[in-house]
Amino acid sequence: MEILSLSLFAFILVFFMLGIKIVPQSKNYVVERLGRYARTLEAGLHVIIPILETIRHKVDILETQLPTNEISTITLDNVTIEIELAILYRVVKAENAVYRISDLEQGSTTEMQMRGIQYDIGLPDTIFSERSLRKPPQQWLRKQ
Prior knowledge:
2 domains, two-stranded antiparallel sheet
């Protein structure tokens, strides 16, 4: 009888320990209950039901830089220039990053948009107004 009670106590303890999850500050965990999205765990201590709920995805929410890309474009006054394009992104909703897009890094179409923006600006404006070049892509990305 004593062995049975000890084994039952050990089973309950292990079951409880499997249900405690600590999420680091730079991650979000996506939890599925029986194969369907249930909730997103943010940084901190959380409890899940070990048999019914599983952590399917661990999403990094730090700011990430895509590989830089050089774009050759023509300004308003017919000067060909090279622009090095660096894109930084951060996942805001982990569930959308997991279930709504298959490849997060390939989901960017900024090269064509940047070429269209650059054509409307002359060479002197391009050299002396770096901040004005940042605004149109940021506005376009916020609309998406």
